[in-house]
Write a structure and sequence with these properties.
286 residues, Ribosomal Protein S5, domain 2, Alpha-Beta Plaits, 2 domains, 9 helices, 12 strands
Amino acid sequence: MNCVTLQSPAKINLRLEIIGKRDDGYHDIKTVFQKISLYDTLTLKVLPTRSLVITADDPVVPVDDKNLAYRAAVLLFREQRLSTGISINIQKKIPVGAGLGGGSSNAATTLLGLNTLLQLHLSSDYLQNLAKKLGADVPFFISSSATSRAAGIGEMLQPIKLSQTIWLLVVFPGFEISTAWAYKTYDASKSLTKKRKNNSIDNLVISMSDVLSLLSNDFEPVVEAYHPEITIIKQRLVQAGASGAMLSGSGSSVFGVFATQCDAEQAWHTLSKHSSYRVFLIHSLG
């Protein structure tokens, strides 16, 4: 085998609670991750000479050590003492800086792809431990579960399951938000944030009503204060028929939850007319 092509899914956070800042600079969180049917495509190939080459069809995507897929490959090669030449082509569909975990997903997909391509036979636990060194969201994308509660910095995962497919619209407003900026702004503006009023979901299988009760994101007040367009998009999603709408992660994407595929399709036709938005009609993975 000298080539493998894999889909690299995005995620949304159905819930995101910031517990506090740690001594190591990270933040402890409680969140619910959900993989969605919005994908980048990664093609990994063996090269005849020792090198690591990253290419992407989006000029915004870095192709050096700022790219998490690059760093994932370097880490795996160092840990396994590999010297094979590898190229990784990234076809981007997940917007950059959108709170959808595209970079983390690409890193996880690189680890999984190299494990397959090079027939390394590394365990999921081993890959999870590597993933923790790359970023808070990366372990979730290694996991086979499409829905998980997460604690710690996001690496402590407990798989759960949706009882049905959830149809969604994800709206990217056309600008990026840095996660580092969002945390820094949150830390400086804690008085603006509100603690959750809804209860945690303890079931291992959750329904649509559970999903709607989960929707809460501690980043929203501070992000909306600087980017009022987020509030407008949430309102437009609800006006278009969404049962609930929320910022994903630290933004800038906003997602709306719809009762049926038909409702989501109708809303897509309405919102996709807005020239500055990228609107994705998607569903939860299971």
